[in-house]
Amino acid sequence: MYFQFLSVIRKWLVSLFLVWGTIDPAFANYSCSVSTTDVVFGNYSVLNPADVSSTGSLSVTCELISGATANVSYSLAIDTGVSGSFSPRTMMKGSVPLNYNLYQKQNYSIIWGDGTGGTQAMPPKKCKKLKNKTPVCQDDFVIYGLVPMGQTVESGSYGDTIIATITF
């Protein structure tokens, strides 16, 4: 019997994170925001002899609000979602879980998390130096998702909500 499962991470970000900071000595004010595109796995079949993979994206945009210059350095972490665990994360259809995970690398070697439970937050990144002539910088990241094969679950739509946190 062939079953198809629509597995969707419905939202990657519960809300837009806006961070204001002040940098000495120039007292420059800047803001940074995170935006995402969903990781959508599509159909999953218990009879498929392969894992199901998909990608999404996460973008960080920092903008100089006032002041002469600002050097912006940040790290990115994502939470466990509904499962409360990084390994595995679970999408849910009511009380029925479907295991999956999110990774920093295409080879699925680094679970993207907050640095606990065998995961890694995205290592600190530096936006280019923000100044009046170039007041905006944007970094884009690929999110690699994987649903392991061999799970026996009900047909239907599964989802999870992940919160991304940017730290300066």
Automatic annotation (TrEMBL):
Record keyword Nucleotide-binding present: no
Top-level taxon in the UniProt lineage: Bacteria
Entries under Pfam families matching the protein: SCPU
Keyword Magnesium among record annotations: no
Keyword terms of this UniProt record: Capsid protein, Virion
Lineage: Bacteria, Pseudomonadati, Pseudomonadota, Alphaproteobacteria, Emcibacterales
PANTHER family named among the record's database cross-references: EXPORTED PROTEIN, PROTEIN U-RELATED
SMART domains linked to this entry: SCPU
Name by which UniProt lists this protein: Spore coat protein U domain-containing protein
Boundaries of every Spore coat protein U/FanG domain copy: 27-165
InterPro entries given in the database record: Spore_coat_component, Spore_coat_U/FanG
